[in-house]
User: Fold these one by one.
Assistant:
Number 1:
Amino acid sequence: MSHTAHIRSHRKPRRSASTIAMRAGVAGSVLSTLAVGGASASSASTAEPVTQTLELPTLTADLAAQVAQSADATQQAAANYELRAERDAAAAKAAKQAKSDLAEAKKKAAAKKKAEAARAAAAEQAASRSSERTTLAASANSSSSSSTSTSTASGSAAAVIAFARAQIGDAYVLGATGPNSWDCSSLLQAAFKQAGVSLPRVSQDQSTVGTPVSLSNLQPGDILYWGSAGSGAYHTALYVGGGNFVGAENPSTGIVEKPLPWSPPTGAVRVL
């Protein structure tokens, strides 16, 4: 026998299995109760949030609809603003074009008025010239009864006149001396050469040869001049009788026979 056998063990006596099982059962029951209670409490505590969770989608949908409506309204406002801006730009462009068209119309109207005034002035001037020519023609006809103005060319004068008339239709070219183009003084120089008369080449000198005669006392073969005799003369032609003259007038007419009133001369000289 051990020497410690009579000393009580300092360890606690072991509980029996039944006691432990009973306590375990009690504890399990308590834990189950607590779990159930906790679950109940948890369910109770989450009951109110469940209500909020159910309402949240409704609030979110309303808010989304409001946002969508606001976006649509903003987009529509932007579209309306853009449309107004385009209309304003079109109106401004149309106004600018209208202003330009009005200015152009005024300019054309002013030009038309100016052209009409010019035509009226030209018509008045033409009528005045026609009146002057009529007066001169009447004067020439009144003096045609004199034997000097109606006398038929003969001798040397006839040869000069025949040559000049033969060139009618030829061209006028300044400085030309024939045979198909002439200027005023070269035509007379060539015509008088047919009668054996040597004339100077230019109009200024031709206006001073021979004897000065009055325009009311002309004879066929007389030399007519325009401007003042001498250095002031700028044109010459040949008087052919009947109130007419033959001359190289200008590039547009060439060599022509015209009545004195068509272009009244300034003076005349006689060399035949």
Number 2:
Amino acid sequence: MISYGPVSCDLDFGRDGVSAGNLYLDHSDDAHAATLVPVPVVVLRNGAGPTVLLTAGIHGDEYEGQIALRRLVHELPLGELTGRIILLPAVNAPAVRAAMRCSPLDGANMNRAFPGSAAGGPTAALAGFILDHLVPLADFVLDLHSGGATGLYCDQAFLCLAEDPVLRAKGIEAAAWLGCPVTYAIPADADYGDFDGAVLARGVSLLSSEFGGGALASPTSVGRAVAGLRRILHWAGVWHGDVAAPGTIYSVPAGRLLAPRAGLFEPLFEAGETVVAGALAGRLFDLDEPLRPPLDLRFPAGGIVVNRYRPALVPAGAILASLAEPRAPDAL
């Protein structure tokens, strides 16, 4: 039995074969008078070798990664493995079950809760258990995200550039093996509270990703995620299938298109599209004054639209599009 505050698990992570169980969160509130809230975990192990930790569902309304990990459990023969895969397909299980971005238990965003705290509430306790007990077992971590209810991403690797040159180089290499059309690279920040920065601060290599979104389960994005998972496992030395690295376009932030006020937004672009600075991005219509002329919004910079706001009804300050410009790998 291993534990971290109110979270415990009795699964044997060193056992050969296929093992399934739960992390159990001891939590009590109006809906859980006396409940151990389960968070599913699966371990595939075939002898000695590297360990890869695969995670999805840190945000509960992001589905492509959750489906891809469940598919992997059923589609990857144990005999083709050397080493161990630990899968957490619903990291923030309370949010997954409620179809919410943040946990219904405490309203917390798990991707702002790291490094965690045993006494900081249920979300922080789950984050701390994963960081203290599961991340140290891993040689590499791949975290799967998508746009959730309000975002839509072009399929991409999301690369946090570690200060450590070895970890940074490993992340850049992993992004090529994941094989998404685009890799979006930003500096890692250990103080932001996200999983990426916390894992890298522990000296473990990590790559994150964004596949689709919009509360959908895009067949294209799920298929691309499953194929990318297989390539990552091959690259890490855990799976021996015959695959190759297709490469990627590395990019860095170039600008964001914001909604200056609330309204109905008519976009004239799609996620993944390449646009030029000053081009018309869309029109923002007033909700209450139909005769008020729409506001033309133009791209503040050129580049690849790596994500867009999905609902037409937008609040003031909504990020309508994030733009990225290409970079050579050695310039990241």
